[in-house]
């Protein structure tokens, strides 16, 4: 009954609303990247504020304050970096399922609202004692991760359901390219905040003042701004026509929503036969997700897609979130460097990598994905990743 509507969506010419959908859906991924990748420089600030190096802990009582070498233990860094990723694994499963049951628009708004509240809560982190701060920060980072991955699959789904057939790959790749801009934005905000606090500080350049405890909180809370803006913009958009027509089985409402946002003649989307205004009771699916029939028809594709995404995420998140440890020669953690300067160095290095590799890589994909195909461009991506990591890893000690 909805074939005419779906054909019109697939054949619709590129319009302003397509680009608006890219920005709105992409801002979700922009916020995701900001929230995930602002943590490495923040961990440097936290180390200067709350930790003394364990090698010097016995001498702290006799050493001058400015010579005490402060660093965050590796176990703490790894935990706070990874706990948000643990939340993302939970969020994808929960919100992905909810998106199919309650609708993309409603669940997307729920995940964005969760991101706003969690970002603000991360900044407050309840108290100022070390253990309390770290435990509460970890808890709220986990909730933030849940919201982030609720947004992640829904952003791609929303764009795919608004896009036409000819440029669907480029539009979805453009949505994901906002992640590179989010990494860059987190680095810029960190550098600006650190520079402002450093200029206003009266402490010696080698010391980290008490006000630094406010700086990292400000950086985290800034992540609530794009999430709140995205929430407002998304609530102004209608539900996707594909969801309304196929899942809710309300083709009339889908046609009305489509006409609101796309310049398509009603004659191209109005069905020939009368259709009920109220959606009928949906029948049970012909076969459930975890069934032999589903696995036989879609199991191989699902496994291959999930496996390649798993492999790329292992590389992407480990190298980006732990790059201050990997490229330590470029980010020297010396006694005479205060927390502001150290966090600034980490953020600057992240910005350089985002500008020189991450962002160009996204836009190369946007340009070529509908020209050479999804499989070929993915194979090229993995090939270049392998070459780069061999080039870094084999002569690592030398460089």
TrEMBL record:
One GO cellular component term, please give it. membrane
Spell out the InterPro entries in the cross-references.
MFS_dom, MFS_sugar_transport-like, MFS_trans_sf
Q: Which organism is it from?
A: Gossypium tomentosum (Hawaiian cotton)
Which positions fall inside the Major facilitator superfamily (MFS) profile domain? 21-399
What Gene3D superfamilies would the database entry show?
MFS general substrate transporter like domains
What compartments host this protein? Membrane
Q: Does the keyword Transmembrane apply?
A: yes
Q: Which PANTHER family match?
A: SOLUTE CARRIER FAMILY 22 MEMBER
Q: How does it sit in the membrane?
A: Multi-pass membrane protein
- The organism's place on the tree of life at top rank: Eukaryota
User: Has keyword Membrane?
Assistant: yes
The molecule here is called: Major facilitator superfamily (MFS) profile domain-containing protein
GO terms (molecular function) for this protein are:
transmembrane transporter activity
Keyword list (alphabetical) reads: Membrane, Transmembrane, Transmembrane helix
Tell me which CDD domains the record gives.
Answer: MFS_PhT (cd17364)
Which residue spans traverse the membrane? 21-43, 75-95, 107-126, 132-150, 171-198, 214-233, 300-319, 349-368, 380-398
Q: Which Pfam families match?
A: Sugar_tr
């Amino acid at each position: 009954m909805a074939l005419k509507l779906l054909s019109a969506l697939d054949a619709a010419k590129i319009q302003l609303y397509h680009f608006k959908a890219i920005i709105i859906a992409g801002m979700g991924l922009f916020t995701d990247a900001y929230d995930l990748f602002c943590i490495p420089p923040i961990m440097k600030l936290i180390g200067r504020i709350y930790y003394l190096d364990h090698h010097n802990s016995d001498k702290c009582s006799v050493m001058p304050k400015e010579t005490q070498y402060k660093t965050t233990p590796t176990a703490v860094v790894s935990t706070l970096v990874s706990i948000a990723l643990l939340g993302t694994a939970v969020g994808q499963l929960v919100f992905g399922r909810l998106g199919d049951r309650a609708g993309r628009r409603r669940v997307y708004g729920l995940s964005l609202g969760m991101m706003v509240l969690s970002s603000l809560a991360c900044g407050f982190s309840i108290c100022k004692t070390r253990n309390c701060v770290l435990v509460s920060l970890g808890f709220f980072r986990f909730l933030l991760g849940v919201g982030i991955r609720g947004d992640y699959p829904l952003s791609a789904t929303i764009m795919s359901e608004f896009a036409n057939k000819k440029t669907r790959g480029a539009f979805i790749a453009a949505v994901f390219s906002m992640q590179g801009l989010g990494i860059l934005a987190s680095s810029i905000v960190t550098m600006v905040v650190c520079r402002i606090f450093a200029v206003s500080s009266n402490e010696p350049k080698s010391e980290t003042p008490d006000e630094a405890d406010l700086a990292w909180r400000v950086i985290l809370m800034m992540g609530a701004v794009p999430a709140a803006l995205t929430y407002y913009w998304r609530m102004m958009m209608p539900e996707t026509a594909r969801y309304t027509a196929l899942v809710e089985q309300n083709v009339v409402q889908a046609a009305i929503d489509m006409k609101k946002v796309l310049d398509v003649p009603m004659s191209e989307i109005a069905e020939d036969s009368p259709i009920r205004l109220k959606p009928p009771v949906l029948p049970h699916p012909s076969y459930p997700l975890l069934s032999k029939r589903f696995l036989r028809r879609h199991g191989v594709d699902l496994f291959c897609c999930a496996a390649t995404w798993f492999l790329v995420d292992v590389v992407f998140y480990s190298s980006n979130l732990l790059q201050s440890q990997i490229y330590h020669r470029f980010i020297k953690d010396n006694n005479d460097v205060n927390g502001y300067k150290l966090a600034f160095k980490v953020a600057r290095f992240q910005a350089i990598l985002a500008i020189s590799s991450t962002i160009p890589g996204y836009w190369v994909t946007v340009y070529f994905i509908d020209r050479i195909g999804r499989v070929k461009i993915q194979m090229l991506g993995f090939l270049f990743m392998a070459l780069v990591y061999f080039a870094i890893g084999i002569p690592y000690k030398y460089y």
